[in-house]
Amino acid sequence: MPRNPLRVWARYWIETAFPLAEAAAALAGEQSSGTFVSVPGETPELKERYGARVEALRALDTVDAPSLPGAGMPGGVAQPRWQRAELDVSWPLDNMGPSLPNLLATVAGNLFELRQFSGLRLLDLALPPDFARANPGPQFGIAGTRRLAGIAQGPLIGTIIKPSVGLSPEATAALAGELAEAGIDFIKDDELQADGPHCPFTQRVDAVMAVLRAHAERTGRLPMYAFNLTGEVDEMRRRHDQVRDAGGTCVMVSLHSIGLTGLLALRRHAQLPIHAHRNGWGLFSRSPHIGVSYVAWQKFWRLAGADQMHVNGLRNKFCEGDESVLASARCCLKPMFDAPEQGCTVMPVFSSGQTVRQAHGTYAALGSADLIHAAGGGLMAHPEGVAAGVHAMRLAWDAAMAGVSLEDQAQRESELRQALEGFSA
Amino acid sequence: MPRNPLRVWARYWIETAFPLAEAAAALAGEQSSGTFVSVPGETPELKERYGARVEALRALDTVDAPSLPGAGMPGGVAQPRWQRAELDVSWPLDNMGPSLPNLLATVAGNLFELRQFSGLRLLDLALPPDFARANPGPQFGIAGTRRLAGIAQGPLIGTIIKPSVGLSPEATAALAGELAEAGIDFIKDDELQADGPHCPFTQRVDAVMAVLRAHAERTGRLPMYAFNLTGEVDEMRRRHDQVRDAGGTCVMVSLHSIGLTGLLALRRHAQLPIHAHRNGWGLFSRSPHIGVSYVAWQKFWRLAGADQMHVNGLRNKFCEGDESVLASARCCLKPMFDAPEQGCTVMPVFSSGQTVRQAHGTYAALGSADLIHAAGGGLMAHPEGVAAGVHAMRLAWDAAMAGVSLEDQAQRESELRQALEGFSA
């Protein structure tokens, strides 16, 4: 989509029984100067200046039944067809200014309920650079994450504390210690574990960081641990400070749980990278007929200050297909604006059912190892133990990045061979 | 649903090709102690203590194709059927504590993407009273809103500044002045109008409140004006203070734009009622196969501190049917907890295509006039002007509350008669 310094562009997939131009105009009107009935103050001059514009409308296929219930039909049509289309709409930046919360109300507000549509998805966004100036964006991004993790190249090999919920602070710390011994680069709390009474945040940070600091003193290596500080704004700021003071190098949030203003508030306070978990994302992505694409959605969170963003993984255990996963990851690595300091690129986090078998495919499709590759069973279940599991994953990535096949590398390296035997899929 | 002081209950609508109990167990496991592969730390004791429990499973209809793409099927079944069901799951409060953001990650987190489900909606929630103690809840609610608006009984007759966006601060103030002269009880900014460069929040508040204060000095009546302060947390707090200092009596936010922690942060700071706009709600409500019901969803926002919540209106211009609108409104008026001080009841806001013709139906269905009835064209387009429009709406409500039919009242009252003639639908 074209970038215009004075206009916000959005692309939608729509489905409607109304003439396309009429449905598009309804959306543009409703989301800018228009109302259902015309009112005295909506002068032609005001409409010209503040009205949203239909910039493009590309007809796609038609279907003989509406995909979502509740939509209207034009009167007097005996056998309606529901036309699908891609619609580009633009708004003057002057309507909302470079405010992310107000951008959201404009491009993804009351339009999902419009009777003109039996399907509507927000596909993409192109924003004026004013958004990069007004919003904090990622503070650490890829380079900062690498620096703090002490990993100059290749992916950060990561894992998630499991069981998801139920471990005490001491048990969490013991597990983190084992993972550190095994040579892991990155550990994160599960999104279900933030500050439950059985594992209070404060005690968890104290216990985990004591173990990790001791490990670092012994070995010179401090794994990055993303502490899930999801909570109210003041809580999150306080918890961030505790992590920082304890020598920690990363904090984690559940994006949907805290919302845009929560992330903005944390980011404006933060001195550590923010690991952004997208649980709840299925709400926006599962239906082909309603929702917001990750391509559009992640732009909000990058501008608000996420440094690392979840994108699921190839051949994952959830519903999402590989193409969608890769489109999301490519987005994270693609600058949002032309000026180098305004790229807002973030580190994609691959996870869910990951093993040594996904390294080559991920690298080939992405052309980059600027990512976190998180695995659970894929590391832990190695017959020789977690250290061998982590090492095997690194061997797989080394091979992928060197253009050596997984099989050839496995012939040379027994840990990788054993991992491959263990994970047949 | 039963209220349990130590467990969170959630009800889902699900659709699955797997045996029901197996699919339900997958959801409960994934959202608590479980992982895709079993791990050493997930002991039977831990599972017993922290595992989510399947409390009830009621089979509904079956369909011969999955409603959403991406779901899995059990192996070896020649002609699968997709079974729908209502599923109740409970979690120990100890898993997440009474934290709304972390509750959200538990009951509406990674479960929408589970391969077991070709459909999943969160229908309802029952929470331990600890949530009422730990969260602020509505500060003003119905009684506080009535007190500040000076309306002891009957609905607050309200309207929305239109055009939605594009008016200058002065033009907004002039319109607010006209509406005040017309005897309106409640005015709100459009959700598209917060702090756009053409109508900065600060100037709008100054201009509008100067006019409304002058009106109040003259007449003794100050309409409640909900200023849309949607923005970052510190901005919202600052804007709230400006409204308070200018003598204003209400602030407004777009819930999805600010998120849970934004509302919590504003509420903990606020000395004015918070008007909660739900734009973007269609994302959760449009599909029958994925989403969150308003019945469940509004409980988060009530606990977080909304005082007035949008519920759409009868025979509205959007896609939502009347039954859904009324279920939402009834919810707002229904106490969430048994203790009187923990009811968290809020004032429902009816709007969208509203005229004098919806007063009787709304009152009859709801059995209450504790609401804001907002209309645009339904007031403005009265042939005798806005004051007659507002008066006609009040006459319709007086009749509804007195058990007098709309037609009988219209025979006696010319403003109502004219309004009825104007709005035939």
The rounded distance between the terminal residues' Cα atoms of chain A is 39 Å
| Percent in strands of chain A | 15-25%
The quaternary structure here is: homodimer
The most extensive contact between chains is: A-B, 96 and 96 residues
For the CA atoms, what is the radius of gyration of chain A? Answer: 24 Å
Number of strand segments of chain A: 13
Average per-residue pLDDT of chain A, rounded, comes to 96
Description:
The structure is a homodimer of 425-residue chains. Chain A is an alpha/beta fold and 425 residues long. Chain A has 2 domains: 7-134, Alpha-Beta Plaits; 141-422, TIM Barrel (Alpha-Beta Barrel), CATH 3.20.20. In chain A, 40% of the residues lie in helices and 18% in strands. Chain A is built from 17 helices and 13 strands. The first copy, chain A, has helices spanning 20-30, 44-50, 100-107, 130-134, 141-149, 169-181, 201-219, 233-245, 255-269, 282-285, 294-304, 322-333, 359-366, 377-380, 386-402, 406-412, 414-422, and strands at 7-16, 53-63, 82-92, 119-126, 156-160, 186-188, 224-228, 250-254, 274-277, 290-292, 308-310, 347-350, 372-374. In chain A, helix 8 (233-245) packs across helix 9 (255-269), helix 13 packs parallel to helix 15 and helix 16 packs across helix 17. The longest helix of chain A is centred in the middle third of the chain and has 19 residues, at 201-219. Chain A is globular, with a radius of gyration of 24 Å. The two termini of chain A are 39 Å apart.
